[in-house]
């Protein structure tokens, strides 16, 4: 394989994030985002990173993921980086749900695609978009290896005691109801980067990773392997998120159906899209919530407090699961940028050896860094995640192998 370029596609329910990387030196050639797919106000933002090309924007309706990918292909072609380029070695796809079968990145053939389709009922917001991304990319470049990198893969090391729900075993097994966990590419990347920051090998380090984006999840990583994570059968369980409720008493669902008269689909939409921060205060962007708090807005304050309370419960819980914790790592949009979230999440945990230094916490940087004071027994770190680089790295390795074997 002489070519070394990898296109990474991260298709979300209403968005596509993409990056073109050259794995010869892990440099980025272009990146972008298509948002609000299926709405009248779709937007494509394309950033060429070679030469002096400026950022470009397209607005107006983009009907579906297929149209979105075709628009992305056009933007790349306009920079001389089109999908028809012989330099392109492979396309890497983030696939959210890989069930139990996929524990490693996988070259996509018809059987793999069929298995990803079979998992749609347990990732209804995510897998359909991933599938369209794969189909469209395959149609554009049928000759290239297409690689799936699964959000669930890193979590397949969870012991049964963490992965099983306490429900009837036969029913659970029949319907494959268990905890799978998500954001695994990020948890794997960040736990490794945290070990590096501490100057240790991943095998020697226990880390709690807090991936706080729009979707949010925590994981307990012992010696480089995931032993527990907060998302479950679907990405709805666990932390309070931008629009998802996270943990609740399952009887809330029966109550809303029987007493509230809501349909199952309405409850699904309520918990996935109208809950979490947006449900609590009408905003899901932590910047806006902090701004409102600074103006004395009580509703925003309560939403923030509920978010932090849940986060603290997971920090404490995973501390107990791991027994010894070397570091806590904050990552993703909120974790990397929101100093008040980091400060509040760790406040009062000095007895556990945890503390945040106010000055270090206030520093803005794109580099992995420690924000705990020298004396803290457990280090607190901010470690920017890079799911696209991780997907590209894994895709490139697998494509090279596939090339050798063909
Ligand atoms: N400067 C910032 N301060 C506080 N929060 C931020 C900042 N920048 C981004 N965020 C938060 O990060 C979120 C997006 O995180 P991201 O990891 O990109 O999410 P996703 O990949 O799930 O779309 C935004 O909704 C916002 O709440
Ligand atoms: C699995 C998941 O929640 O992904 P995202 O954060 O991209 O929505
Ligand atoms: Mg994300």
TrEMBL record:
Binding positions (substrate): 94
Cofactor binding: number and manner: Mg(2+). Can also accept Mn(2+).
EC assignment: 2.7.2.1
Annotated catalysed reactions: acetate + ATP = acetyl phosphate + ADP
Cofactor(s) named in the record: Mg(2+); Mn(2+)
Gene Ontology molecular functions: acetate kinase activity; ATP binding; magnesium ion binding
Main location: cytoplasm
Listed GO biological process terms: acetate metabolic process; acetyl-CoA biosynthetic process
SUPFAM superfamilies, per the entry: Actin-like ATPase domain (SSF53067)
Keyword Calcium: no
Pfam family, one: Acetate_kinase
This protein's pathway: Metabolic intermediate biosynthesis; acetyl-CoA biosynthesis; acetyl-CoA from acetate: step 1/2
Subunit-structure text: Homodimer.
Function: Catalyzes the formation of acetyl phosphate from acetate and ATP. Can also catalyze the reverse reaction.
NCBIfam families: ackA (TIGR00016)
Name of this protein: Acetate kinase
Protein species of origin: Streptomyces aurantiacus JA 4570
Gene this protein is translated from: ackA
